Amino acid sequence: MEYVKLILGFLLLIKGADLFVDGSSSVAKILKVPAIIIGLTVVAFGTSMPELSVSATAALKGNNDLAVSNVLGSNLFNLLVVLGCCALVQPVRAKWSLLRKEFPFSIFITLILLLLNSDFSITKVLKGDQIFVLGRYSGLLLLTLFVVFLFATVRSALRSRNEMPVDEEDYKVMSPLKSGVFIAVGLAGIIWGGDLVVDSASSIAKDFGLSQTFIGLTIVALGTSLPELVTSMVAAGKGENDLAVGNVVGSNIFNILLILGVSSVITPIKLDVTAVYDTLILVAASIIVYVAAISKHEIKKTEGVMFLLAYLAFFVYILLR
């Protein structure tokens, strides 16, 4: 029964996020908000709603291991599996502006997260049996960086739009009432789905004697990353694989700054040393993917296979530890 609840929760999360994006995009169009701003805010936020719902619900219920491991697992899945799968379809190219700005910023904030998760103490990490805390002040710092990032991104997008006008993206416009219904139903699905996923994942972890960290890094991370996987694979199939890289990088930034920021502000998150190790692995993976992307401005099939093998090695590592 718990597996049924888990699958139902994922379905509600994904469909809820889809309805939320459609409804919010429609309202934005009614209010004459530029399409590029919709893409950078509403759509980006919508694809991160599953992670936000799961992590915030976990924080409220005191399942903090699940909140952090969900974000770390999702970001690793995005980098290694999503980009790896896209590269198998065809070589993945990334825009120079992304490699120059957003991707380095995602590495920078991952390093910030590593420092915050380790309490700025190498000694505590080396001891290996210490408790670390991602507190409310850390959460406020992450949220502040999120606001700065969002402001800078929107300003840059508007400047680019003025310099080189592009056609409006085709966001479907519905009536105000229908848009409101889509937003309300979407949010309800996201909240209910997040609740089901947290409860069922915690129950499954207990039944099998697994830690919530393991469940969060694997099953929950995979389930909440499905929107990014589907979006990026569709983009790669259409030859628009620069969108695939942008989707992954944007989602990873949202996950760290918004989701962990909100979760740790709700309640300070206690971590063990394995969370610090996992953050360090995420830093390493981010740098490796960045080097692969910037070296020849594309990620080839061979590198895609290497990314997938690296994720498999990570999965075996967390299974055995």
UniProtKB/TrEMBL annotation:
Domain annotation Sodium/calcium exchanger membrane region: ranges: 6-153, 181-319
Biological process (GO), any one: intracellular calcium ion homeostasis
Subcellular location: Membrane
Recorded superkingdom: Bacteria
UniProt cross-references to InterPro entries, sorted A to Z: K/Na/Ca-exchanger, NaCa_Exmemb, NCX_ion-bd_dom_sf
UniProt xrefs under PANTHER family: INNER MEMBRANE PROTEIN YRBG (PTHR10846:SF8), SODIUM/POTASSIUM/CALCIUM EXCHANGER (PTHR10846)
Keyword Transmembrane helix on entry: yes
Organism: [Clostridium] hylemonae DSM 15053
Presence of the UniProt keyword Membrane in the record: yes
Transmembrane segments: 30-47, 67-91, 103-122, 134-154, 175-194, 214-236, 248-269, 275-292, 304-320
Cellular component terms per the entry's GO annotation: plasma membrane
Membrane topology classification: Multi-pass membrane protein
Molecular-function GO terms, alphabetical: calcium channel activity; calcium, potassium:sodium antiporter activity
Subcellular location, principal: membrane
Protein's recorded name: K+-dependent Na+/Ca+ exchanger family protein
Keywords, sorted A to Z: Membrane, Transmembrane, Transmembrane helix
